[in-house]
C-alpha cells in the first residue's frame, strides 16, 4: 500500500509563496517584500546596481564619519592587512564603484536614490563628487570620534600612496585634508561635554556669588541712603532745639 505523501499547504501573499506554518514567523519578511514591490527603480530591484546604491545610502546615512581614499594597487595581502588594522580602530573599509556612488550623491536628497529622476532634479554640484576620481575606498565610523580618525591617519602613513585620504564627511560637513587634520586634534564629544559642564558649573557658582554680593550691596546702599536722608532731619531738629534754647535764655 502506498503511503500518501504529506504536501504542505502553500498560500500566496503579495506574489510570494510560503508554507502556512511559517507565515506567523515570516510576517516581517512579507512586510518587507510588500514594501520592496512598491518601489519603482531604474534598474531591476534585485540587480546588483540597485543593491550597491542602497548600500551606499545606508553607509552614508548611518556613519558619522566617512573618509574617502584613493585605493591604488593594493595586493590581496595588503588589502587584508589594512582592513584588519582599520577594523581595530573602529572603522570599516569599503571599495566603491564611482559611477554608482555618484548616482547616490546626485540623488541623495530624494526619498529613493534608485528611482527615476529627471536630470534637472539631480544635485550635480554635490561637494563630495570631486573626490570620486580613480579607484576609491570609503572608510566609515559610526561615531564622530577624533581619536579614531587620528589613529587611522597615523596607520595609513605606512600605506603611503596606496591608501591616500583625500577628504571626508564628518556629520553634515565636508572636510578637506587640512580641516581633517584639525578635526583629529579635537577632544571627543564626551570630553567636550565634561569641559562644558565644568565651565557651566563654574559660571553658575560665580553667578550665585555675584547674586549674593549684589543683594548685600543693594541692602547696604539702601540703608546708607536711608541714613543719609535721616541725618539732615536730625540736624534740623537739633538746630531748632538749639534756637529755642537760645531764645528762652
Automatic annotation (TrEMBL):
**Signal sequence segment:** none
Region ranges (Disordered) = 225-249
Ribonucleoprotein in keyword set = yes
Q: Give the Pfam families listed for this entry.
A: Ribosomal_L10
* Cellular component terms (Gene Ontology): ribonucleoprotein complex; ribosome
Keywords noted in UniProt? Ribonucleoprotein, Ribosomal protein
Top-rank taxon of the source lineage equals Eukaryota
Which PANTHER family does this one have? Answer: 39S RIBOSOMAL PROTEIN L10, MITOCHONDRIAL
UniProt family annotation: Belongs to the universal ribosomal protein uL10 family.
Q: Please report the name of this protein according to its UniProt entry.
A: Mrpl11p
Amino acid at each position: 500500500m502506498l503511503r500518501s505523501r504529506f504536501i504542505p499547504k502553500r498560500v500566496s501573499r503579495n506574489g510570494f509563496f510560503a508554507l502556512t506554518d511559517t507565515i506567523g514567523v515570516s510576517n516581517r519578511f512579507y512586510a518587507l517584500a510588500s514594501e520592496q514591490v512598491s518601489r519603482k527603480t531604474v534598474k531591476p530591484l534585485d540587480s546588483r546596481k540597485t543593491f550597491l546604491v542602497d548600500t551606499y545610502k545606508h553607509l552614508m546615512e548611518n556613519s558619522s564619519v566617512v573618509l574617502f581614499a584613493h585605493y591604488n594597487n593594493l595586493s590581496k595581502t595588503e588589502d587584508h592587512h589594512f582592513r584588519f588594522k582599520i577594523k581595530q580602530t573602529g572603522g570599516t573599509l569599503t571599495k566603491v564603484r564611482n559611477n554608482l556612488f555618484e548616482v547616490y550623491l546626485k540623488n541623495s536628497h530624494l526619498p529613493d536614490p534608485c528611482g527615476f529622476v529627471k536630470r534637472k532634479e539631480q544635485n550635480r554640484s554635490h561637494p563630495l563628487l570631486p573626490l570620486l576620481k580613480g579607484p576609491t575606498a570609503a572608510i566609515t565610523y559610526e561615531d564622530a570620534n577624533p581619536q579614531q580618525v587620528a589613529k587611522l591617519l597615523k596607520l595609513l602613513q605606512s600605506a603611503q600612496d596606496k591608501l591616500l585620504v583625500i577628504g571626508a564627511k564628518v556629520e553634515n560637513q565636508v572636510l578637506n585634508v587640512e580641516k581633517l587634520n584639525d578635526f583629529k586634534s579635537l577632544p571627543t564629544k564626551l570630553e567636550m561635554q565634561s569641559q562644558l559642564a565644568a565651565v557651566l558649573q563654574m559660571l553658575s557658582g560665580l553667578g550665585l556669588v555675584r547674586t549674593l554680593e549684589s543683594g548685600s550691596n543693594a541692602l547696604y546702599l539702601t540703608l546708607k541712603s536711608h541714613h543719609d536722608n535721616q541725618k539732615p532731619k536730625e540736624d534740623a531738629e537739633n538746630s531748632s532745639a538749639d534756637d529755642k534754647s537760645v531764645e528762652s535764655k
